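Treating backbone geometry as a discrete language has practical consequences that deserve illustration. In the encoding step, the backbone of a single protein was reduced to a row of integers, each denoting a local shape. The amino acid sequence and the backbone structure tokens for this protein are reproduced below.
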Amino acid sequence: MIARAHSATLLGIDTIPVEIEVDLIGGKPEFIMVGLPDQAVAESRERVRTAIRNCDLDFPSLRIICNLAPGDVRKEGPALDLPIAAALLAGFGTIQHSELEGTVLLGELGLDGQLRRIDGALNVALDCARRGVRRLVLPAQSAPEAAVVPGLQVYGIESLLDLVRLFNVGDLAPVELSEDDRRTHPTYPYDFSDVKGQRHAVRALEIVAAGGHNVLMVGPPGSGKTMLARRLVTILPPLSLDESIEVTRIYSASGKKGDVSGLVWERPFRSPHHTSSYAAVVGGGKSPQPGEVSLAHRGVLFLDECAEFSRDVLEALRQPLEDGVITVSRVQATLTFPAETMLVGAMNPCPCGLKGYPEAKCLGNPATCGRYAMRLSGPLLDRIDLHLTVPRLKPEELLNMEPGEGSSAIRERVWAARQRQDKRLGGSRINAKMTPAEIRDLIALSPDSLEMMRTVAARMNLSARVFDRILKVARTIADLDASDAIERPHLSEAIQYRERDSF
């Protein structure tokens, strides 16, 4: 008789259902596993055998054939330990076959039968709810993450003996989360009150946060670019439940949740080093995994010294900046990962960082400085809404001990501006993601403003993309001023952020 259990495996951040079939026959005792298991899955044979015996459960000396279906999909990771053990226990008669129907199991077994935390619990739970699965059984450490999915009974167990108890006695209750468990309010070690001077830069980052725009900061070493960038997440609105689920899916599948047991409520801030590989930033690998641009989904991707990044890496960011997704193609699969992030770039005006500053002499020649500036291509710069010069602080600003405006006050204005956008656009969308049709329908310019844009477009030789992005930034500035109309001052401020005097 063949015993069956149901589980799932991850491909990127997506879930593929897996059916475990176990056939027990007489003959020489051996454990054969088929169905394209990777090394971690193949080693389940020894973990499962030892765990069952160490829990004082029967493990007859039989010839065991375990098939992982579908057979043409590679199965990865140790999370199939628990469903393999459950199928075996059903075959041995320790638990009833009927208990495994309508149930998906996941979990890595220790040799003593204890269960360890797994990756991708939320991803599997969402897929189970979509397919109408009634019950999900997984390690207790991963259960809070999966329990946020409505309409699904989630059971968190500590050991293999708990599984037998659940199926044979049925006295274990499903995990239930209170509202306090569902949402936590992040706290940050940084605050904009720490920033001295740089009022122009702080104002620009407020616009960036309000509209979800991309920004490039250019300035000499020590001018505060990194300090400003790290504080951007402190003025962003809190994640909604849907956004938190999106972020948690990515981090859970990638195994980067750390000590967080439930949903991720903190806006991501990712800052890869400029020596990071293409796959690390964009995503990829033998089995495609999300890169830094996807890990920054709904948050901030900060590229410090962005001119030092590989040209291939920088050019690959053009798709996510435009579409909010990144497509990774490999021999095994072509996967699309979410990548709706705000790009914050920081760079020096030249290799030595002193170009254009009278206090010190630039050590490079014009050709060297020109090549440095050209490391960021025109098409990439077109996709960056605000180009910001961050000068060095003057001595009197450094000596000024008065704190700047705090993040909480700025965040209130940002939140108010985003509420105006949500009312206008719907679906928690922001100005940076407006389509050309929405720009045409929702952004009306007065005759005076139209003439101004006509003059600026001719003087600055603006592309159609940059023209639209200026209008989006102007719309955000008007939202911060609680204005329904885009006035000439709003447009003027938006235009000044396209100047690139430092190049």
Observations:
- The mean pLDDT is 89.
- The chain has two domains: 2-180, 192-429.
- Residues 229 and 473 are 19 Å apart (CA to CA).
- The domain at 192-429 is CATH 3.40.50.300 (Rossmann fold).
